[in-house]
Amino acid sequence: MLPFTAAEADWIGDARPMMGTEVSVYLWSDDPEAGRLALDEVFEEAARIDRLMSTYRDDSEISKINREAADQPVAAGDELFGLIRRALDISVLTRGAFDVTYDSVGQHYDFRSRQRPDEDTIEAERVNIDYRLVVLDQAAGTVSFAKEGVRINLGGIAKGYVVERGIDILRHRGIENGIVTAGGDSRLLGDRRGRPWMVGIRDPRNEAQVAISVPLADEAISTSGDYERYFDEDGVRYHHIIRPSTGVPASGVHSATVFGPDAVITDALSTSVFVMGVEQGLTLIGNLPDYESIVIDADGKVFYSDGLAPPETQSPD
Ligand code: ADP
Ligand code: MG
Which helix (H) or strand (E) covers residue 64, if one does? Predict the structure, then answer.
């Protein structure tokens, strides 16, 4: 009998820059070699999804849709079609706070080079923001746009999809404990071997500081913040979450966190709650029994959805 082998069961992990952010995988494996293979497969899957869904690549399926769908219906693969359909469902649920057509204005921002659209551009492009302009033909598997100028961008939902696919891969490989993260979206597989995972929500104005820690197991959690991609100009923060009704970055909230069973949904809903603001956002989450939310507003005040709120302290009489 060999009591010890060179490679022993342990936590392993890796993080790689991808999709304009970082994708990371962390897992427990009894067999380190099998664990490594699982890690690699998750990164390969993330790269595959990015090739399909990135608007930064001219050769992606989504770029083809953006080029051609105003002229004729464009065949989308099942996977892309399905994710666009889910995005449109969330638009209905959030009355347009989540809207993948935000990109007709969104494309004119470049946060790295501090570029933003002027008012004329916003006015001209704003009329192209409306999820109802995206027409899906389920039977034909095609996407078309009702007018010229419409563009879609899945940046508010694709990372959640990467996370879901990553967790599926780990599960199929027999992994029982792990985390897959893409930018602000994570899903936890199982627990941390007997303890819950402690997931930190950062202080929106201090990168080094955790504002709130939440114990979670077997759940997805997404945070949208105004500190991920932004620049400040004359005291105004221009960031990457656009209010579809105005075409300008949503204000009032510094970060919105949503957790629940599905990372595709938590991803889209964290963006939605950010746009909707504390009151409307938490009302929306209150109507979704499986989802909870924590919002930090522009004064740094923390708000919890009903399912999380501590019971009212009883007055003693
Ligand atoms: P992160 O990218 O930091 O995880 P989010 O999940 O909130 O943050 O996604 C923000 C991204 O969503 C933006 O970079 C953009 O691609 C897209 N987006 C911005 N505004 C909207 C909106 N109103 N509806 C849908 N997607 C949006
Ligand atoms: Mg999101």
Answer: helix 61-68
pLDDT single digits (tens) 95-134: 999 999 999 999 999 999 999 999 999 999 999 999 999 9
- Mean pLDDT on 57-66: 97
Q: Is the CB of 244 under 6 A from ligand 1?
A: yes
Q: Which ligand is nearest to the CA of 110?
A: 1
In short, whether 159's Cβ falls inside 6 Å of ligand 1 is yes
**pLDDT tier for residue 7 given thresholds of 50, 70 and 90:** low
Contact call for residues 153 and 106 (beta carbons, < 8 A): yes
Residues 30 and 35: their CA atoms lie apart, in Å, by 8
User: Could you tell me which residues are beta bridge partners of residue 142?
Assistant: 75, 137
Give the domains, in start order, of the chain with CATH numbers.
55-145 (1.10.3980.10)
pTM (whole model) above 0.90: yes
* Contact indicator for 266, 291 with CB cutoff of 8 Å: yes
Indicate if the pLDDT at residue 316 is higher than 60: no
